[in-house]
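Case study B.
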Amino acid sequence: MLKLIKFFSLSNIYKLLHRVLRDIKSGLIDIYLPLFLVPALTLLIVFQLIPTIWAIWYSFTDIELLGRKLFEYNFIGFENYSDLGEDPIFWKSMSVTMEYCIYSLVIRFTIGLAAAFYITSKMRIAKYIVALLLLPYTIPGTVIPYIWLSMLDTRYGTLNRLLSLVGLPPQSWVYRRAMESVIMINCWAGYIMAMLILASALKSIPEEYYEVCEIYGASRLFRFLHITLPLIKYPLILCIILIFKEDIDDFTYVYMFTEGGPHYRTELLSLYAYHKAFAYYELGYGCAVGVIVAIIVFLLTLAQIKLSRIA
Amino acid sequence: MSISIKLLVLIIVAIVIIAGGLYYYFYILPPKKIKISLYTKAGLWADFIRETKIIEKFRERMLREKNIDVEVEMITRPHKGYRDTLVADLAAGTVGDVIWIGDTEIPGSAEAGHLLDLTPYVTKWDRWKKFFPVGKKLVTVKGKVYAVPFETAPLVIFYRKDIFERAGIPIPWQPESWEDIYEAARIIKEKVPDIVPINPMYGIELPIFAAGGIIYDPKDGKFIVKSDAILACFKYYYEVFHARKLAPVELWLEKWDTRKYFQEAKLAITVDGTWCWREKWGPGMPYEIRDIEKVVGYALFPGSGAPGAPKYISLTGAYCYAIWAKSKHKDIAWELLKELVKPEYMAEWGYRTSHLVTAEDAMIGKYAEDPFLKWAAEVLKHSLPKPLIPGVKKYLTLLKRVVIDYLLPEAKTPEECMDIFAEMATKELGADKVKALPPYKL
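Model:
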C-alpha cells in the first residue's frame, strides 16, 4: 500500500511526466504510440474507474436508491463498514461465498485439469470431444439457470427422473440442496476456463521429456509429479487465482436460481450487495459490501500480476 | 382617391396579409418535431401497445390538433426484475418521459422527486372523475397525484371444480371463514390423494388485513410489528403447512410453479391474482386451461372469522402511467399518457389479461360482457389498496423472510415468528418507526 501511495505521489508523477517529455523530445518515445491507448483508456475510465470511484464514495454515505435520501444523503464516514462488522447476514454471506468459491474451485479445477489431459492426449476422438466440451461456454449466462431450473425441478426435473431410474429417492435440488445446485451449475458452465489454460500449458511441455521417461520406464505418476506438475506450476496457480476471482463476485446463477435462499444459504456477497441496494434501497450500504468484494478481487489481481511476472 | 377608399384598400391588404399568415401557420407551416419516450415492460405489455397502434394514433392526433410531429421511442425492460430496473433507471435518470410504474414504487419515487406532480393536469381533465377511488388512492401521495392507474388486480381464490366434485364438496364454493378453507382442503387431502390441496396465498400480507389488522398507523407514522392480526397471519400459514399439513412446505420453499400445478389439476385451491384467469390460463397462454369456465371456480377470500375481521377481503395493487419530472416535453407526455389510458385500450387490455380496468367508462365491449370480469369488478368493493408508504417494501420483505426462513423450514410457532419479525423489523426499520399493539410489547 505504501508503495502504491508513493507511486501516485505528486513528485513522482511530476518526475514521470518530465521523463516522458524528455524522451519524446529526444525521439526515444514515439509520440503517436500512446495515442493508440486512448480509446481503451477512455472506455476503462468511463465504465470502470468512474463508477468504482462513485461506489467508493457512496459507501461512505447513507444514500438510498429511492426516496428523499437519494439526493439529500449525508457523509457518514466508516459507519457502513462498522455496521457490516456487526451484521450477521454479511458474515453469513461471507462464509457462504467462501464455501461457494472453495467448492467451485476444487471441482472446476479438477474437471478442467482432467478435461485438459483428455483433450491433449493422443486419442483420435479427442479433437471431436473438444467441441463438445466447449458447448457450455457458448450458452449465455442468463440462459443457463433456466436450463437447469427445468433439470432440477423436484417433481418433473430430468435429474430426479434419472435418480429414480437407478432407484434413488428424488432430491430437493432447489431448496435442501440449493448450494450444491448452484455450485453444480457454476462448475458445469465454468470448468472450460481451467481446461483451456491448462491444456495450453500441457501442450507447451516438450515431448522429449516424456520420451526420456518412457525409455527409462518411469511410471505415469512419476511423469506427472516430476515433469508435468513442475512445468505447469505457474499456469496452475494462475488458473486457481482466476477461478477464485471469477467466483467471488458471481451473481447471475444465484440471482436467477435461488435468489439467495433458503435462509441466506446461497446469499453470495454480490447478491447481498444487490439485495441491500435494490430490495431495501440502502445503496450506501450495498456499495460498502461491493467495495469489500472489490478489495478481495483487487488483492487477488495483485497476486495474479505478481505470479505472471514470476512465470 | 378619397381617404375612405384608401382606408378600405388598407383594410383589405391587412386582411389578406393576416389571412395568408394564418393559412401559412395552420396549413403550410411545417410541423414542429418533438421526440419523447415511453418506458415500459417488454413482451406482452409492449406488444399490446404495438398491436393496438396506440402510438400511431397518438402521433396522428398530435399532428392534427397541435401540428406537432411527435416521435415516440419505446424503451422496454424485461418482466423479471422490472421494478428493480425501473428504480435504478429512475435514480440514473435514464427512464422515458412516460413511465409504466407499479404502485409500490410511487411513494419513494415521488419523494425523490422523480415523478411529475400530475394534480394540475388531472384537475383539468374531465375523465379523472371516472376513475375508481381505490385506484386514485394508490397513486396519491400526501394529497398529490403522481400517476394515472391503468390496471388493477385483486387477489381471489381459484379452485378446481373437477377436484371438488371428486372430493364431494358442493360447488359453487364460497368459504365464509378460514376454517372453511381448512376444512375444504382437509377433505380434498383425504378424498383425492396425490394432489396438493391448497396454495394458501400470493404474497404474504393479506391474512393480516383479513384478520382485521393494519400494518401501518398513519396517526403516528409507525409500522406495526406485533398485533393479534400479525399473529393470526402467521397462524394461518402455520395451520396450512404444519398443524394440518394441507400443503407441503416445499410448495413455497422449492417455488413450485403453482399456476402450472393448477392447470394440470395437481393443485385444488390457490389464492392468486385475477390476472391468472386469462394471462396465465387463458387461450393461447402458457398454462392454458380448456373450458376454463367449466373447470375453474372462483371465490372471495374470507375474513379470519375473528371479531372485527371483515366478511371478505382482497388486496389490490395497480400498474400506472406516470411522467418523469425531468421530461422536457411534459405537456406532450401528458397527451401520450391520456392516449395510453383511453377507455378502449383499458378495456381491451383488461379483457386480454383479466386485469381490472380502473375507470368506470372503460367497462365496455367484450370486457363488460365477460362473466369473470363482471364478478371480479365486484371484488373491488372488498379490496383494500396496498398501503403505500416509504419503507413498506422492506416491511413486507421481512414478513416474507420470516415465513420462508423460519415458519416453513423450522416449523417455528406463530408466537416465535412474531417475535423474530418484530426483532428484525425493529433493526431494519428503526426502533422509532415501529410499535406493538396492546397486549403485546416490544
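Residues 3-28 of chain B form the longest helix (26 residues). The remaining cases will be described in the next quarterly update.
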